[in-house]
Amino acid sequence: LQGYASEMDNPSLAHLIPSALQNKKEILFGNLPEIYEFHNRQIFLKEIEKCIENPEFLARCFLKRKEDLQIYEKYCQNKPRSEALWRQCGDSIFFQECQRKLDHKLSLDAYLLKPVQRITKYQLLLKEMLKCSKNSEGTAELEEALATVLDIIKSVNDSMHQIAITGYEGDVNDLGKLLMQGSFNVWTDHKKGHNKVKDLARFKPMQRHLFLYTKMLLFCKKREENTDGHEKTASYSFKNSLKMSTVGITENVKGDNKKFEIWYNGREEVYIIQASSVELKNTWISEIRKVLT
Asked: Are 244 and 172 in contact (CB under 8 A)?
């Protein structure tokens, strides 16, 4: 923050800043100042240090700071935009100059990855602690703390996918909370009921990436694109959507325990959805049920 972000406001370096970076500080650094502020207050650190003698209280530190730790979610949601900007102007003289002054071996992007690594390290630490705390005091709280951190990581992961949705006319932020996302085989029947659904099973399924929100279910088609010499990035082109207030669900489809049905408007449209495993199917069904009830 001092060696790079502040230097973007340094008049003597202004001429070195590439035009693509003008007024884009918030995109490049996201809410890093907020994360810095949280740790700099050292409340979290001091609470954790108190646990050196009493490790069974560690989980409480995480549970107490549940809301605070969501600043990482915000940071990770911005990360794809930050990375795209870095790819555009990371090799500029401005960054080289800042790095030289700081005498850093690594360039800025390595440091911008730290918060993402930090939140994933927390879950590893909590998992290790759980291994050592078989049924002792604080085990239940440790499990709850781990679930809290995993929930933040899941949310981060889901929102990374959500950012890549293209072609949706509305604003995905209006669809409520993103509960689940994942890839499925999907068969559809749009006939007004006179065609038996079982005839459909012969046809080749479509590959669809589903996004389940509290208000809407989106069907997208996943596309992998090579970005100039970088790893493949996925994008999801929007195909259609179902309002959750108008759908029904059939939990079992004859002949395949990994399939379930979502239907619309009194079975006017039927979507047969096949998950990759029975566990995954059950997770989705329980989330959809929660929304419907």
From this structure: no
* Structure-token pair, residue 106: 């690594």
Q: What is the pTM of this model?
A: 0.68
- The residue assigned the tokens 């989705």 is 284
* Domains by residue range for the chain, with CATH: 7-163 (1.20.900.10), 166-292 (2.30.29.30)
CA distance readout (Å), 138 to 56, 59, 129, 240: 5, 7, 10, 47
DSSP H helices, the chain, are 25-29, 32-40, 43-49, 58-64, 71-89, 93-102, 108-112, 114-131, 139-162, 278-292
Tokens encoding 51:
């646990």
State pLDDT tens for residues 251-277: 999 889 999 999 988 888 899 999 999
Residue 187 gets which letter from DSSP? E
CA 267 – CA 241 distance, rounded (Å): 15
